[in-house]
Amino acid sequence: MVSGVIVRANTFVYRNFQPVVGGASDGRLRAGVILFAPSNGDTVSERPKYLWVIHGTENWGAELQFVHDFDHPGYVEATAFGGPEWPLEDSVRTVIGVPDSAGFIRLLRCPDGVITKIE
Predict the structure, then answer these.
(1) Which of 25, 48, 54, 72 sits at a 20 to 30 Å CA gap from 10?
(2) How far is CA 37 from CA 27, 34, 83, 104, 113, in A?
């Protein structure tokens, strides 16, 4: 619960191998989160700010750089770039930090996932 609203979060963790203009892809880890309010009529007024990816005994933390508001006020998406080059298909855990209306960071542990590949 963040600022009185029950929220759910889905995260995605991948390495990007898509070509980029002016050079080769970096293959670095990218991670993001879609935060949503599952109840009809609820809005997600707070935006996710931090993300941590836990890979065994290692972790990578980043401030979420891009936030996309969907047309529906109950959804928001944010992404972080430039993480380590951990192996594809490895299992990871993710935690996001969402500031609440009082200024505290609420930590939300998301379902475990695997590192996928984007080409």
Answers:
(1) 25
(2) 32, 10, 28, 19, 21
The whole-angstrom separation of Cα 71 and Cα 86 is 34
Determine, yes or no, domain membership for 65: yes
What pLDDT shows up at residue 28? 85
**What is the CATH number for 87?**
2.60.40
List 67's β-bridge partners, or say none: 78
Closest CA to 111 of 92, 98, 83, 97: 92
Number of domains the chain is built from? 1
Whether the pTM exceeds 0.90: the reply is no
The answer to the question of residue 1 being in a domain is no
